[in-house]
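#struct-help
A.M.: can someone run this one for me? Single chain, 321 residues.
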Amino acid sequence: MREIRIASGRVAALLCLPVIFWLACPYSALAEEVTASYAGPTITFLPTEVARQRGFFHEQNLDIKYLLTRTEADRAALASGDLDYTLRAGSTFVSAARGLPVRVIFLGTTRPFWGLVVRPEIKAVKELKGKSLGVPGLLGAQHISAKAILRQYGLDPDRDVIYRVVEVGARIAALQAGSIDSSMMDYGEAFRAKKLGLKMLVNAADSHGLLAGGVGTNLRKLRDQPEQVRRFLKAMVQALKYMQENPEGTQQVMMSFLKIDREMASEIYQMSINNFTRNGTVEESTMNALVERLLADAGIKGVPVSQLTDFAPLQQVLKQF
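D.P.: on it. Structure tokens below:
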């Protein structure tokens, strides 16, 4: 792991992060470097890590660098071109709907890979009224998921809880210290929390669908570098196929990426494998319903999904499979 030092003051101001890092891979010095932002090593972003570890990006002569970003900064950096790609489909839909020059080009998930984790004394979702709830970013996928769960259990998600932005990796400690009362956590973090006496009150995948993980990019990238976009997407499609056909190899990637043991990797794989798409696409009616709900949670209405996506490069790639 190596630290990225960014010379541009504009980029640094956009990201505003306590930590920015890349996971380097021993690719050829001639490989084309691309940056992809994410919210940290979670199960949602597993397809990209499978593509990295299993060499699918390398086969496409791409050297991927992850950038750890917060949701709000991620949107601005992607729109300006300071990022090549983002792995956050949910926030990219919101950005595009607000008029930013970005599009979703690949959908990796149909259901969330996280749950609502609470302090041990909390027995029901309704007990969170007036209490705090940790999310990695406002109006990101986990925030929207939290609002859906609260609404389902009879709370007003905009008034009855206090949202706190807490980074991935810091949420267990925050719960233990009592600085937050509950938090959205991906499965890996939730399992670790359970071992420490906390509990997952609700599995979000049992509550609602969500287009959280995927790939977004800006319009300039689509216009000026279409061939690179297709190579990136081909690696992602190969990763999804590998995940379905190679459980053992996928679990090995999970162990190193999520820092979990084999038993936990096996359990999380079984719980989550059907939450991923098969090839980066989702049935149009399902996508429209999920996007409409996502945008409604962000206070956005009346924006056609066709203005938020560009699946033409992906369709070109899928003709090769």
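A.M.: thanks! The longest strand covers residues 32-38.
D.P.: also worth noting: The first helix runs from residue 9 to 15.
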